[in-house]
Amino acid sequence: SDGYAARTSVAYRGKYWDNSVMLKRISDEFNPGMGFVRRAGMQHWYGTSGFHARPGGKLQEINPYVELDYITDLQQQLDTRSLTAGLDVYLNPDGQLTLRAEDQFDRLEAPFTVFPGVTLPVGPYGWREASVRYQTGQTRAVFGSVNVAGGEFYSGTRRSWGGNVTVRPRYDLSFEASFTRNDVALPQGAFVADLASLRARYQWSTRLFGSAFVQYNTQTRAFVTNARVNFRYKPLSDVFLVYTDRRNTQTDVRNERTIALKVTRMVAF
Fold first, then answer.
1. How far, in Å, CA of 261 to CA of 258, rounded?
2. pTM score
3. Could you tell me which residues come within 8 angstroms of residue 269 by beta carbon, excluding any fewer than 6 positions away?
């Protein structure tokens, strides 16, 4: 009774056009209860328009589009804006090329620590950047993607690159490796942040699955290990057994270690 949240949207998807608009408004006092909201006390406008052309031959589909997120406080002061112009190119027999150019705005109401020892002061920031990504088809035994991006970042610049590769020697077994590097230069300091991860998945049957995941983040000096077993005893009903370990490699201190058991049951009525 002390707050509210509202959302309305309209969309049209035809043979060639894909358009939608959305308005969301959340009061300062809104309490989501069982869920969550990314932020309260805001009004969020969203709109996108895209065109789908299928020329044939080596080009399966070409999809140019524009996308806008426009977020203000309840007094209509701009807090966040993201304007994106993109082009997705789907190739025959497989593969996808993605080009994106972004114009960003963000108003910091509190100091923002982007890296240990590097903190951005309160104030408005605007910047632009562009990215290119290529992904191979996922029907192959070995597939992956590469991406590069560069441009401005808050009051400085950022260059990033990364990629991932997945090896699937059997229908029930896969291994994935990924790496991302961000090279950031700001008036408050420069830093390089790397994120590397390895993942393995195995399916014993259509009802029993397992996965293991390790990740290292140079920004937080954190080494994370996660292993999970999932048993599906009925459709949409599962038992999960999960082990998580998070350690700071700089201080050699374990920050977290948990073993969790979760049981879900789908009830239809």
1. 10
2. 0.83
3. none
Contacts of 227 (CB under 8 A, 6+ apart): 210, 211, 212, 213, 242, 243
pLDDT at 115: 86
Helix (H) or strand (E) holding 249: none
Q: Which residues are bridge partners to 263 per DSSP?
A: 239
Quick: pLDDT tens for 76-124.
Answer: 999 999 999 999 999 998 899 999 999 999 999 999 998 888 999 999 9
Rounded CA separation 90/46 (Å)? 25
C-alpha 101/C-alpha 82 separation (Å) is 10
Say if residue 48's pLDDT is above 90: yes
DSSP for 85-140? EEEEEEESSS-EEEEEEEEEEEEESS-EEEETTEEEPSEEEEEEEEEEEEE--TTS
